[in-house]
Design goal:
heterodimer, A: mainly alpha, Non-ribosomal Peptide Synthetase Peptidyl Carrier Protein, Chain A, 3 helices, 43% helix, B: alpha+beta, Aminopeptidase, 2 domains, 13-stranded mixed beta sheet, 31% helix
Chain lengths: 76, 274
């Protein structure tokens, strides 16, 4: 199974996601990318991220996305 | 439909369509700040119909339709019966790669929409040897608040309001305040502008236009070169362009932009385009 950094790298290969603490503010993910990411995470991990969770704070960095995935039942 | 007053209402409606969805489909990619702006200005209506959420955003004399549906069948069922389509001018954007849009296009066309325009997203990396600012003495300014109406007028006479997501006056004011409208003035008039949005390492050209009577002065080139030089920290430049506007596509290619695979099909209902 692909790791989160690998998934992000597939969506936006030009950025180093391990070097940013805020993907949205740094312009590394736009709203289209966010929806692509949600769909990819749903498919990869067999989960359904809730619409109410699709907010910028949950996608700021690897840590916040990790927290969201754990809340959805994904084992670390 | 109900006028929405909070962003939470938007996310709740999306969740109503998304919960347990077998094949969630949408044309709604809500950037939080933009949605908040629409709500603050009373432009956004919403409704949950069955397992599909619909949003209408007021824009001049028509509406943009956004949807979120649990699957394509649910969308087909609800959009066909959507009452606003019979009484209002409505445009809908379908965004994605060409390969995944075919089924959605069929559904939206079966609801009475007709294809109106097709836009391509172009991207360019920040690369060594960026175009340098022109040294011809043309002065590039950041637009001022007093330029708002002139900017609006130039955009409205140069672009298509159904296809090009033209900004409202308050959005132009915000862009000016953020110093994201570059302008060249000539003979006391707004001769050319480059309207952009930068967020961190990504910058989007929204509109790049030279007023008709000032063409052939190389103002467009001067603006673009100034823009690239001023955005030296940006790593990814993007923009949307009408696919059949070969002249514009060629100009962007000249500056290193190339299609990145994302496409926007704009469809309108019969009240726009009988």
């Amino acid at each position: 199974m692909k790791s989160l950094p690998e998934i992000l790298k597939e969506i936006r290969p030009e950025f180093d996601f391990t070097a940013s603490s805020d993907f949205i503010a740094d312009g590394m993910l736009d709203s289209f990318d966010l929806m692509t990411l949600v769909a990819t995470l749903d498919k990869t991990y067999g989960i359904s991220i809730q619409g109410t969770d699709i907010v910028p704070d949950n996608f700021k960095n690897l840590q916040t996305i990790g927290v969201l995935l754990r809340q959805c039942g994904v084992q670390a | 439909m109900d006028r929405l007053t909070t962003v939470t209402q938007v996310y709740d409606a999306i969740q109503g369509a998304k919960a347990g969805a077998s094949a969630f489909c949408t044309n709604f990619f809500p950037a939080h700040g933009k949605v908040q702006g629409w709500i603050d200005h009373g432009e956004l209506l919403g409704e949950l119909r069955g397992r599909s959420a619909f949003f209408l955003r007021k824009d001049r004399d028509f509406w943009h339709l956004y949807f979120c549906a649990s699957n394509v069948a649910a969308l087909q069922r609800e959009i066909t019966a959507f009452p606003g389509l019979k009484t209002e001018r409505v445009a809908v954007d379908l965004v994605g790669s060409e390969a995944v849009l075919g089924e959605l296009l069929n559904v939206v066309e079966s609801a009475g929409f007709r294809r109106y325009a097709r836009l391509l997203r172009l991207a360019r990396p920040n690369q060594p040897g960026q175009p340098q600012p022109s040294a011809d003495g043309t002065e590039v300014l950041c637009a001022e608040k007093t330029d708002c109406q002139a900017i609006m007028d130039l955009l409205e006479c140069s672009f298509d309001r159904y296809a090009d997501q033209l900004p409202m006056l308050y959005e132009i004011e915000a862009a000016i305040a953020a110093r994201q409208v570059l302008a060249i003035k000539c003979e006391g008039a707004l001769a050319a502008l480059l309207f952009f949005e930068s967020q961190g390492f990504t910058s989007t050209v929204r509109y790049w236009v030279v007023a008709e009577r000032f063409r052939s002065h190389r103002f467009g080139s001067t603006l673009m070169r100034h823009y690239f030089a001023a955005q030296s920290a940006v790593r990814r430049f993007i923009l949307w362009v009408t696919a059949d506007n070969e002249n514009a596509v060629l100009k962007y290619r000249h500056y290193g932009y190339a299609p990145d695979g994302l496409m926007d099909h704009v469809l309108v209902n019969w009240l726009v385009h009988p």
